[in-house]
Give the backbone structure.
Amino acid sequence: MNDGDFIELSFEMRAGQDKKLISTSKEDLAKKEDIFDDKKKYKNAVIVIGTEGLFKEINDSFKQAEIGKEYEVTVPAKDAYGMRDNKNIKVVPMREFQRNKINPEIGKEVNINNKVGKIISVTPGRVLIDYNHELAGKDLYYKYQVVKVIDDVKEKVNAIIDMDYTDSEEFTVDINNDLISIQIPENAKFDVNWIDSKFKIANDIRKYIPDKDVEIKELYKREEKKEEAAEEPKPEQTNEESTDKPKDNVKESQ
């Protein structure tokens, strides 16, 4: 296998001396080890060998892997998310939380001044935030099995959408000769995250499927006007009707 190949695999990732399960594609294992998330879809992952973000140890292992065989890879902490650094623990004034309308609670993950960290202490007037990655200082342990190498263009496009945005099942992907056409779902049209993801998807398709053009369709339909129910016309009173009827309390002259 080589850089740029799309592979489908089942996996589990553990961290630390106790090898606590952090992530997995297997629903039964997630339930067994009490990390199951009912908002998450558990399914085999699709990885592009050589992409940014893959640890070198994992990437090198993929290149040597055989379909159907199980592999285990260890990534030392220094080569994973780095060692813990006390300089990454900062005191933040309470007014910053008030300005951002955030209620500080121990264990809560927050974004202050475009930096994401976890609150470890709350005292009057100040909050202590740990900006180290939650897996900093921990060795990582991967176990995986390659199910297949993906050659189908549509499957590759769906994998890129999964990697760069969200569930590709909500998108409509059509391949017509040299053109890849992607129709986005309704919920993406008004999602601020879609703006950046759109360019990532287009760039990755051009990078990994270079012999195809790509178009992304965003159709914003006009609002349908609601028809107001027409009022039934009141019957008009004729002159004849108004003169024939005697008025109340009026007697005919004799």
User: Anything to note?
Assistant: Residues 249-254 have pLDDT under 50 and may be disordered. Helices lie at 27-32, 56-64, 94-99, 153-164, 186-189, 192-208, 239-244. The CA atoms of residues 181 and 215 lie 5 Å apart. The longest strand covers residues 140-150.
